[in-house]
Amino acid sequence: MLNNVNNDSKPKKLVIVGGGTAGWMAANLLATQWKDTEIILVESQEIGIIGVGEGSTPHLKLFFDAIGVADADWMPECNATYKNGITFDKWSTIEGFESYFHPFAAQTDDIFTVPHFFNNIYARMQGYQVDAHPDDYFLESYLSKNNLGPIPDECFPFGIAYGYHFDSALLGQFLSKNAQKHGVKRIVGTVNEVLMHNDGSLNAVKLNDNTLLTADFFIDCSGFRSLLMQSTLKVNYQSFKDNLYNDSAVVMPSEISQTLPVETKSTALSNGWAWQIPLRNRFGNGYVYSSDYINSEQAEVELRQHLGLLDSDIQARHLQMKVGRVEKHWHKNCLAVGLSQGFIEPLEATAIALSFNTIAQFMQYFHEGKGTNKFEAAFNQDINARFDGIRDYVVCHYKTNQRNDTAYWRDNAANNHISETLKRILHLWQNSQNFAGDMHKYNLIGSYQPKSWACMLAGYGVFPTDNVKQSFDYSAYHQEKVALKDFIRRCGLNFKKHHELLKN
Ligand SMILES: Cc1cc2nc3c(=O)[nH]c(=O)nc-3n(C[C@H](O)[C@H](O)[C@H](O)COP(=O)(O)OP(=O)(O)OC[C@H]3O[C@@H](n4cnc5c(N)ncnc54)[C@H](O)[C@@H]3O)c2cc1C
Which InterPro entries match (predicted)? Predict the structure, then answer.
């Protein structure tokens, strides 16, 4: 199928349905890169946005770089803070492993400290009682513990990746303004009919006031409704319910602390986990749980207890989540972005990253295919692999949790509905003396690097408990440990306190 494209292989006219984070991200990227395309975004005031999703990975920085917006241009307006990574608290009950930090990447780690981390993991696997807790090997773990932001002084020659926390409603408003500055036309209205061509592609959307919006290409950002991709084009949906049990969340704000954390905190509760996201003016909190194990009232009470807000009159909001993905993210003349294409529960805060990858990669494939669907299948395969790679990593948290207090955690640990890829990764962890090398060798690198897998598995204390050995050159090991600690501390001297960084 050949689309109606301009001389530069871009659609002449494009309609985006939905004005949540996904819709406005798509509008910004398309408007700044496809300058000759007429772009209209329609959003429904009566339906509104989901209004959660306040933590990101470093992909949000890539997105802002791509549209030419600096941190200082958007962060204050969105009450945004910096994020070094995520602390996972109480997912393991093994002594010494009750908590660990999953950092974003820093060059100093890869060059200097991660090799020691892996050496000690291998020693630990053989029964030597050395320190293989990830928190002692990563720069951003040190930064987080000391409330230091992720942007170094100019003289620090190593790169460091970081994410953000932000108010999702304010981010949407910022992105809406910015896209309109770049020529995107915003229409407020509700789509109540979708018109198709004879070949099954999309022709137009009709709004409740009878406005007809025709286009050559459509982007479905209508959230869990998936109005175009699933409801109209009937693209199949694969649920992840058999290995990701959580389907609900209850959310509420709380007062921000004096020292502003530089991390998201994920604390395991009885039947799921709670996030705590620091913004400049409040904490965003939420309990993500499975309604098969706990009902919404019990979940709200447990979240309030966890936050010390049992008697508070702060309102909580309850949400349902659909966890899985479509089989095709690009089909005919439609691309699904955001919740309309799928969602892997928010444990690693990856939804915005997936939206960014989807739009950026689509633009590249569409252009390379000269405006045809030549690369549709390859694109769908790539995006599915990204979703499945993230799913496997998130599933691994549940599979390897070290709790035993409720049926929820026991069922998660006993669940064998996991992908072959995840089974092979877990087998390597237990059996390989070169986990990182073997992950490369057996082509198991998906959305996460071996060091991230090692952080999780070592962080939960997934090590053999028998076969403890004593003979080891512990004096050399202790010297090395002191040197590493000092190295990371000295790197840390190049970073400012979080609140000072936010003044810039
Ligand atoms: C509990 C929870 C926690 C999350 N946490 C994170 C996180 O920490 N990090 C992260 O990256 N992501 C997170 N997410 C995901 C994140 O919220 C979404 O990916 C993000 O907000 C994008 O949503 P969206 O734009 O796809 O959908 P929505 O925000 O739902 O927007 C849908 C849009 O479509 C419009 N619309 C729908 N139907 C019609 C119609 N008929 N006509 C016109 N317009 C229509 C709506 O009005 C709205 O503008 C979380 C999600 C949940 C459920």
Answer: FAD/NAD-bd_sf, Flavin-dep_Halogenase_NPB, Flavin_halogenase, Trp_halogen
- Reported as a pLDDT band with limits 50, 70 and 90, residue 328 is very high
Mutate to test the pocket of ligand 1, among 167, 213, 222 (most ligand atoms within 8 A of CB): 222
Q: Which residues does a 6 A CB cutoff place in the pocket of ligand 1?
A: 17-23, 42-44, 47-50, 52-56, 168, 190-191, 221-223, 225, 227, 249, 286, 319, 321, 338-340, 346, 349, 351-352
How many separate domains does the chain show?
A: 3
Nearest CA to ligand 1 atom 6: 53
Question: By residue range, what is the domain housing residue 277?
Answer: 248-320
What is the predicted pLDDT for the residue at 4? Answer: 67
**54 φ, ψ (degrees, to nearest 5):** -120, 10
End-to-end CA distance of the chain: 50
Residue 331 belongs to domain with CATH number: 3.50.50.60
pLDDT at 259: 92
239: pLDDT confidence band, cut at 50, 70 and 90? Answer: very high
Instruction: Judge whether 216 and 273 are in contact, CB under 8 Å.
Output: no
Which value, to the nearest 10 degrees, does the dihedral of the CA atoms of residues 490, 157, 356, 262 take?
20
With a cut of 50, say whether residue 490 has pLDDT above it.
Answer: yes
Q: Is residue 404 part of a domain?
A: no
What is d(CA 418, CA 473) in angstroms, rounded to the nearest whole number?
Answer: 39
Instruction: Tell me the percentage of the chain whose pLDDT exceeds 90.
Output: 93
Give a yes or no: residue 258 inside a domain.
yes
pLDDT digits (tens, 9 = 90+) for 447-464: 999 999 999 999 999 998
Give, using CA atoms, the residue closest to atom 1 of ligand 1: 249
Measure the CA–CA gap between 254 and 460, rounded to whole angstroms. Answer: 28
Instruction: Tell me the CA–centroid distance for residue 21 and ligand 1, in Å.
Output: 6
Residues 157 and 185 in one domain: no
Please give the number of the atom of ligand 1 that sits closest to the Cα of 192.
Answer: 41
Q: Within a domain: residue 336?
A: yes
- Please give the angle made by the CA atoms of 360, 248 and 26, to the nearest 5 degrees: 15
Question: Residues 46, 184: one domain?
Answer: yes
Whole-angstrom CA distances from 113 to 109, 116, 118, 140, 439 are 5, 5, 9, 12, 19
Task: Give the pLDDT band of residue 6 (cuts 50, 70, 90).
Answer: confident
> Mean pLDDT across the stretch 280-286?
98
DSSP letter for 372, please.
B
